[in-house]
Here is the input.
Amino acid sequence: MESAYGAVLFLMLVTASAAQDGCICPMNIRTTCEMESGSCICRVLGSNQRVNCSTLTSKCLLMKAEMDRTPRHFPKSKHAFLDNDGLYDPDCDANGNFKARQCNKTDTCWCVNSAGVRRTDKGDDNMRCSELVRTNWILIELKQKEREDPFLEAEVENSLRQFIQKRYQLRQHFIPAVKYDYPFIQVELKQDLMQKTYRDVDIADVAYYFEKDIKRTSLFHFSNAFNLSVSGEPLDIEEILIYYIDEKPPEFSMKQLTPGIIAVVVVVVLAFITGITIFVFNRRRKTGKYEKVEIKEMGEMKREENA
Here is the structure.
């Protein structure tokens, strides 16, 4: 924790020195900026890719910057990945988007959606991903810290809508619903590719920035403080979960099911097989009894005829 804080503090000092020249990236703290030919040019750590600092940086480049762990002279903590579940060093295209196929250093590969989330089983280097499936629906579930009196639902909805629009530049059109049932909040983001213009930020990038803000590891410049409030009172969040829904269903096999689900499936199958076995056994018993009775009656009929 102290190591992570030290790294962030170092970055803040570096960007503070650049800020004296007025050359910083207010939308992304994980950048290096310098004046070139009278213009402030900022590049993302890890990929050295130039970014537009008037809008959000893509999630793919942000994840790559996190994996870079700049500055390198800081010692790595053995707990460095505790707050970064699912973080990997992604392969980004020239536009900063995730490539459909991702691999690690051990040549284990998998397919991801446009949010960079794995949507298939893992395979070897021969694995192929035919397309980058778009994530067009994101559900952000929040758990509010305990408070004496819950907020009004309309106040929470209005505050979150305005906050997301102002801080992350996402148009209201892409926030179809905000639901509040104390202490839980659900923010729904929807964005089809046909709806998105070149000026619109992507909902996957918005969700990633928002998650980092909630976890107090903001990607914005330190002067752009995170302040989420409702009617002038802070809206303190203690948990965040993000669910991704793609235009096409994921392609996980049976082995990706949780042990609980597998257990249920096995019980159902066993019950079905047991039911069939009992049915067949009872039928045989009934059939055998019927045949014995029928043979006995035919013997009696023959004796009567002989008499």
